[in-house]
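REQUEST ID: PR-0412
SUBMITTED BY: lab tech R.K.
PRIORITY: routine
TASK: structure prediction, single protein chain
INPUT:
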Amino acid sequence: MRVGTVTSRQTASRIAIAAWLTLFGVGCSRKPPRPPIDEQFLSAFMERQRLRVESYDRMTPPIHANLLFISIDTTRADHLGCYGADSGASPTIDAFAVESILFENAFTVMPTTLPSHAAIMTSLYPAELGVINNHDSVPAAALTLAERLQNSGFVTAAFVSALPLRAEAGLNQGFATYMTPDSPEAPGDLAVDRATAWIEANHDQRFFAFVHMFDPHTWYSAPESDRAIFDVEAESLPAEREWVKDRAWFTPERVAETRRAYDAEIHYADSQVARLLQTLETNGLADSTIVVLVSDHGETLDEELAVHGYAFDHGEFLNRRELRIPFILHLPAAFALAPARQAELVSTLDLMPTLLELLGAPPRPPMNGQSLVPLLRGQTYVPERIVAQRRDIRRSEGAPITGLEFAVIDANWHWIQSDNRAIELFSNDDPDQRTNVGADHADVVTDFDVYLRRWRTVFGYPIWQPGSARVDPVLKKGLESLGYTGGDDE
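STATUS: complete
OUTPUT:
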């Protein structure tokens, strides 16, 4: 291909990006200073996006469906029965999955509550939004799923269970009703009580209801009835989390009980899902409502305890246990898309474009994910590599690992690059990621390294100018009560 041709396409791509931003009345001011954009990488991405849109007939939805969006925080896919677990923690979700489309290989792009939900609701990477910590906020110029659906005539409401998703964090954009607890966190039944009442009051309108439950997040303190099922005596576990100071507390018996306590929390959340689904049935909405169930990220249990002294937390490692999430989509019978298990690689960025197409709402850019409707209809689907990142861990936090960490995932490999740890490469045939095979596949390591460097020039910096870095002291105290420290309180 002639250089001149490439240059013209690169220029067209940059013009298109600028046009996207102009739609929202914003400029391309970006802070912190960024390296030059890899225009060839950007041009290739935009060409793939263009071909995706032009290569298939966009679905005309058979009905004007509602949307119930359920997010269960901190839920590992491999702890649900429909994803292979045998604990019995998720009977409702398992039955729901049988009648739905289950994505076996769905991944989040960041294992932290607010950044992950921000990516879900905008189809933009956390770095593009400038939302890397739970104390950040989504820019007002970002166009959320709720805003898009509200503009299409939906009545909208959100019912959240924890401080990271407070209204001031910006995810309230587009929600006419946005209900949060009066404390840093609340059991899921409060959000579900509010959501069921709202759905009943608005059953005769086209609605979008978002329900967030925080229960599987530490501390694990499920109701006694759920704990009894899993033989958990302690009301709250573990004694400490993240970078633990008293490793002696973590005996094999206590670790096992704490793992069961995590499953008890999932079981409690599962019972609240049952209430939501029953509300749809009772109000005659089951045949006219799309239901999607996901998590924002997974959880490290005791896998890093021996090596790093880290346990029962998330956000510091980008392994499969933290990035792989449940993603289950239930469609009314009118869509004529049979229940199935999809093995293709998908990410949380794909949620919004998929839902917009199923709901008949305009797929207005910018969006970095792709609609999964072609995959569901047996048409051509080409997955993108998934890039995930964690926040920058500062030396002042006193953690044994510091700096940035990124992961790149494709259909065969899961590659992790950290500022001060050795490169890790795991085959996807090793789901527990026990064997680092990077030394045996230098070509793969090099390929992923080059890909990440190029990706970061395009997607690794804020589109909109970040706001003040100062953290409100009341917010800081509330996040600390939930166990967030370091980067989430500085």
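NOTES: The longest strand covers residues 340-347.
REVIEWED BY: pending
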